[in-house]
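Revision sheet: structure tokens.
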Amino acid sequence: MMVTSRQPVARPPPKRRIFILGLLIAVALGYGAWSTYRDHARLVSSGVSVEGRMTGRFREMQSTGRGRVTSYYPIVSFRTAEGRVVVTAAVDPLDREAMVAGQAVRLRYDPADPFIVHLADALANGPGLTPWILGGSSAVVALLSAWGLFAGRPLRRPI
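Predicted:
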């Protein structure tokens, strides 16, 4: 009878697993930056521009943290190119005083989902800081993780 010993499966050291996890987080942050920018660019290029009206109502969102911040998203109504009347909250916040019932406002909506509505002025200002923050964070985490993963290891040279 032949006795074989089971060799334990070689696992990377815990430190190495942390750096691999860092690289995965960097990929997720990079994807977030890219998808935010892509969604903005798609709406600018293929979104439908319409004139809508503010209803005078709004959706209020409060963020918690060091200081309580309240954002107001206007409820707008407009007619799609197909003639459908849509009443929904805009994606972009406004000052509460700027929301006057019946006031005309330029909107841009996604033809695939007309309930995704942006204020044309806010959309013209660009995608904002979010893609830059996510992209920069992705680059920093990727560089630190790659440095930690490969630092001190000799590079193999082809024979």
